[in-house]
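pasting for the record
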Amino acid sequence: MTGPAGPLTLPQIEAQALAVLERASDAQVIAIQTRTKAVWPDAVQLSGRQFRLRWCESPLMAREALSSLEEGADEQAGAGLILLTPLSARDLGGDVVARLARAQVFQPDAWGMVQQLFKAREVDARLGRFRWMAQLLVERSSMGAYPPVPNGFLDMDTAWRHV
């Protein structure tokens, strides 16, 4: 499943970043692909750490954001950076990609984000056709955490109950 056509919302960014941090808790720089720029806050708090959000529409902007993070490393120990970019890993260049979490630019996957939010290992395949539902569940996650699903399986009834 592909990401949204428009700009990512803050809950979508947070859900994607949390999914990355779940697999790489020490990640300092997370890159997320989004087609267009939107109005986002300067920083977000995730997993007890502050992450600055930076729109980078060119490899040069990404390098500047990375340089800025390294220069301010003494100011905020543990601070991180979320690069929001329309560029692919190939477009950013090997020197930038080498400094990214898992050496990749993450492409938002709405149902993948929902899976992380419910701490599920699997999602009912029938839910795949309800893309709007995944986006709504991600948006509503900012109102509070979802309870982990029993047995690690997010079924259709559970998803509908939270819509």
